[in-house]
Inverse folding.
């Protein structure tokens, strides 16, 4: 296949009907993949739901109102290079584009500004990134309770920092990074409620040497010291509850020693790590596998992102959590595999060894982070009265009751309780539902499985569907699934 | 609940929330502009009528659904504020015809 449209580095809604490589997601993996495939002379279409490139980790990297090099730290600003490379490449970049379907024939459906389009790809690279792992505690649906990642997005895109009494609760590197960024910006935090289970250290210690050799170690330790010197830290928190009626008013906690406490709050930020955003990959027919080390489901792909569906790759954190630096290299590996399929003589393929070496460096220390920051069972399988499915307002008790009535898994649970059938399509409840059902039935999450996800992976209107061309291909894209 | 850093002040964009005039910063999403204006409720749920506000800010939780210029079920975190935009709290599910 050859290029079907003139190359352009300008933002455009001029969606080509076909192209060599379609990349979904403009975070580190998608940016690196698109740039490299374009460098090999392939026609590349990069589709992304956000207003600008960067994904979540480098959100608003070309449009942040914050001064370059300030508050957000050098790791954030380093993402500008990936964005600039992509913008300077021949890749055709479409922001504000929501991909809602992909089939095994590598036909994608997407919507831009309320109109649907169809694109036939030679190869597809899914770089849909990560989501914050659900952190279902009583009261987590109250206004004023947000994810730490969501609050960080407000900082990156709009220069917003908390005002009033603010508590961060949970575990994982992002929690500490956000605290450090707020302090750097002159913000104040009431407390950090650290839910990292003490017992995790035993499992993590053997992986410590690998972490110390990683690019994250020194920076991470310095950041922890800085935050701990300035913020009240409550360690070994084993239970949390957000209190309030119309908005969050307080957070209560219990620690491993049985101590309890309460903070009045205006804002409660929750975080317990990130997990792959699997909806589009699974809807395209890529099976999901349970990753015990990361306690999540991920698409079943090989080291270069190749999936069982020929010509569809998954790269970056969407294929399993490896961090931003690793994501860029995994994007490049997937691009190299796509280039090898379409243009086996490309000299770009000679870059493979250095990409693999860079990936190995970037992934050093991951095992340590996975083990240390694995959330406790209690924060993954919440107390009975806790809402698990935010869309349909279904509690943990209802889910375990359904299991006790004989419900066999997440897909049957949809018929019982509508879990996963609201607009978020299981993104907020899927892991919790699978783990609760597995626990109630005494089997592993691997055995119980995950929701079978289907197109459209984001809600669309009938009017959008009707805006597709009325031909056989379009009919098929609507019928399948 | 949020304040804007002095270095991030920029061009002000007038818009309304349930008819009340507010100011956003150029580039703000609707959800960010609501939070910056001190508004943490943006919808009530279709199931129990419970209040919700922006939660994930990345287009996956659907808790920031609002009515934008008469069109319901818009994800506030994925829509940029434009001058004169009419944002309304969404009560329950999207109404037919808007």
């Amino acid at each position: 296949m050859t290029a079907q449209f003139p190359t352009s580095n300008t933002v455009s809604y001029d969606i080509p009907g076909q192209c060599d490589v379609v990349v979904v997601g403009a975070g580190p993996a998608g940016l690196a993949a698109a740039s490299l495939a374009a460098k090999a002379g392939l026609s590349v279409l990069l589709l992304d739901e956000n207003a600008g490139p960067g994904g979540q980790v480098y959100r608003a990297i070309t449009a942040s109102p914050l001064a370059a090099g300030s508050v957000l730290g050098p790791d954030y600003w380093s993402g500008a290079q990936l964005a600039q490379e992509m913008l300077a490449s021949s890749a055709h970049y479409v922001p504000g584009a929501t991909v809602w379907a992909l089939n095994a024939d590598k036909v994608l459906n997407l919507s831009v500004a309320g109109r649907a389009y169809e694109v036939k790809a030679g190869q597809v690279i899914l770089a849909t990134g990560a989501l914050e792992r659900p952190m279902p505690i009583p009261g987590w649906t109250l206004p004023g309770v947000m994810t730490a990642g969501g609050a960080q997005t407000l900082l990156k895109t709009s220069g917003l920092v908390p005002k009033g009494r603010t508590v961060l609760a949970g575990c994982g590197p992002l929690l500490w990074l956000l605290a450090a960024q707020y302090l750097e910006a002159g913000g104040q935090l009431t407390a950090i409620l650290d839910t990292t289970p003490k017992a995790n250290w035993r499992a993590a210690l053997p992986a410590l040497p690998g972490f110390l050799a990683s690019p994250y170690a020194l920076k991470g330790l310095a950041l922890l010291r800085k935050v701990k010197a300035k913020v009240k830290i409550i360690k070994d928190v084993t239970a949390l509850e957000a209190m309030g009626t119309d908005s969050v008013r307080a957070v209560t906690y219990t620690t491993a020693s049985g101590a309890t406490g309460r903070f009045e709050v205006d804002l409660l930020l929750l975080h317990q790590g990130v997990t792959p955003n699997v909806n589009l990959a699974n809807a395209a027919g890529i099976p999901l596998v349970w990753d015990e080390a990361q306690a999540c489901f991920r698409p079943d792909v090989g080291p270069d992102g190749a999936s069982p569906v020929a010509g569809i790759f998954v790269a970056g954190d969407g294929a399993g959590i490896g961090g931003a630096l690793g994501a860029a290299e995994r994007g490049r590996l997937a691009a190299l595999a796509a280039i090898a399929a379409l243009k086996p003589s490309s000299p770009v393929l000679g870059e493979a060894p250095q990409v693999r070496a860079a990936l190995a460096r970037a992934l050093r220390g991951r095992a340590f982070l996975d083990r240390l920051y694995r959330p406790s069972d209690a924060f993954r399988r919440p107390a009975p009265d806790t809402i698990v499915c935010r869309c349909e307002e279904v509690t943990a008790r209802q889910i375990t009751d359904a299991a006790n009535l004989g419900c066999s898994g997440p897909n049957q649970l949809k018929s019982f309780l509508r879990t996963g059938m609201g607009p978020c399509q299981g993104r907020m409840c899927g892991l919790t539902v699978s783990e609760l059902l597995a626990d109630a039935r005494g089997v592993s999450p691997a055995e119980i499985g995950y929701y079978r996800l289907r197109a459209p992976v984001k809600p669309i209107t009938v009017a959008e569907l009707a805006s597709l061309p009325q031909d056989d291909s379009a009919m098929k894209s609507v019928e399948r699934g | 609940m949020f304040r804007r850093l002095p270095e991030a002040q920029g061009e002000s964009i007038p818009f309304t929330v349930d008819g009340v005039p507010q100011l956003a910063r150029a580039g703000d999403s609707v959800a960010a502009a609501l939070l910056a204006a001190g508004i943490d409720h943006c919808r009530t749920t279709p199931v129990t009528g419970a209040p919700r506000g922006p939660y994930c800010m990345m287009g996956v939780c659907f808790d920031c659904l609002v009515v934008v210029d008469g069109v319901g079920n818009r994800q506030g975190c994925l829509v940029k504020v434009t001058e004169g935009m009419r944002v309304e709290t969404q009560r329950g599910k999207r109404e037919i015809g808007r």
About this structure: Chain A has three domains: 18-131+275-344, 134-272, 381-448. The CA atoms of residues 315 and 330 of chain A lie 5 Å apart. Chain A touches chain B through 51 residues (CB under 8 Å).
